[in-house]
Amino acid sequence: MSTERILIIGSGGQLGTELCESLRGIYGNDRVIATDVKTLSGSIAESGPCEVMDILDKVRFIEILDKYKPTQIYLLAALLSATAEKNPKFAWTLNMDGLFHVLDAAIERGIAKIYWPSSIAVFGPNTPRVHTPQHCIMDPNTIYGITKLAGERYCEYYFEKHGVDVRSIRYPGLIGYKSAPGGGTTDYAVDIYHQALTQGTYSCFLSEETELPMLYMPDALRATLQLMEAPAEQIKIRSSYNVAGMSFTPDEIAASIRKEIPGFTISYAPDYRQKIADSWPKSIDDGIARAHWGWKPEYDLQGMTGDMLANLREMKSIKS
Ligand code: AKB
Question: Which of 138, 140, 215, 266 to pair with 132, CA 20 to 30 A apart?
Fold first, then answer.
């Protein structure tokens, strides 16, 4: 029986919802404590311990640490790219102070493992955009990317100076049917499936040729758990690992939907998020993650589209 106690900070978000379910499946419901700044509801609240906690409130954070004595923390609370551009000062505070609170707690309390997500947003307009390597010019020009790059540097520093076992992935856009994304530039690739099923048409906030790296949620969960379960000596990068699944444009995802829903149409109305997308890589070289801890994606675009639509149809009780 597992002796791990896992604290998830930001369990109500797109990744937090699904990671909580997976971790409870592996470690047991009572061993995974879901926390969020908002009261959690639904299956996450019914299946195991839940607490309301703002990671910026250090007193409350210490209270939760004293109560549950976690051996691992997943810190998922953050403002994503589009929301962060609208509220840059708060984005810096939440994304950085939240991380400091967790890294400091790891030292003070000897917490065995920390997971902190980074993003392809750490790259910028001077980065090579095709098969972006693990190590290259970064120069992010969004506030979200700046916080993620600063966070990566801090993670590596805390590992080198204090021995904190912190692990991280630079997520591309994440696509899943169980939970909604919140405030990202890649969110269109989730919304498009919902709109395709309910409206048969979608107005996209990125232009048709905007190619971005993406990852289907089952692959993202597998990557995260695989990284966290790998022996510490295999984790040779303590900033964050490049991880890739697939790359596509809005035009290509629309074509993949049309294979399942022939009448589906798409139109384009690029907004402020276009500039963010244009500063990011088109595709990612994840050879180092593959070599160090055996990462390999399972889904391509058409495989994901088939699975997304089948699951959304079932959830929305729509006949094919
Ligand atoms: C966003 O679009 O902000 C996120 C990300 C790529 O980190 N999905």
Answer: 266
Alpha carbons 123 and 173: distance in angstroms, whole number: 14
Task: Give yes or no: residues 228 and 104 share one domain.
Answer: yes
Q: Which atom of ligand 1 is nearest to the CA of 81?
A: 3
Look at residue 298 and tell me whether its pLDDT is greater than 90.
yes
User: How many domains does the structure of the chain reveal?
Assistant: 2
CA distance 138 to 140: 6
CA distances from 278 to 130, 144, 147, 178, 272 (A): 12, 15, 19, 28, 11
Same domain, 152 and 208: no
- DSSP per residue, 84-153: HHHSHHHHHIIIIIHHHHHHHHHHHHT-SEEE--EEGGG--TTS--SSB-SSS-----SHHHHHHHHHHH
DSSP bridge pairs for 124: none
Residue 284: DSSP 8-state? B
Ligand 1 pocket, residue 173 CB under 6 Å = yes
Instruction: Examine the pLDDT at 1 and tell me if it is beyond 70.
Output: no
279: how many CB neighbours lie within 10 A of its CB? 21
Q: Which atom, in ligand 1's list, is nearest to the CA of 120?
A: 6
Calculate what percentage of the chain has a pLDDT beyond 90.
Answer: 97
CATH of the domain at 312: 3.90.25
Q: Whose CA is nearest to atom 4 of ligand 1?
A: 184
CA distance 153 to 239: 6
CA-to-CA distance for 200 and 281, rounded, in angstroms? 30
Query: Does 108 score more than 80 pLDDT?
Result: yes
Backbone angles phi, psi at 316, to 5 degrees: -95, 5
Please compute the mean of the pLDDT values over residues 90-100 and round it to a whole number.
Answer: 98
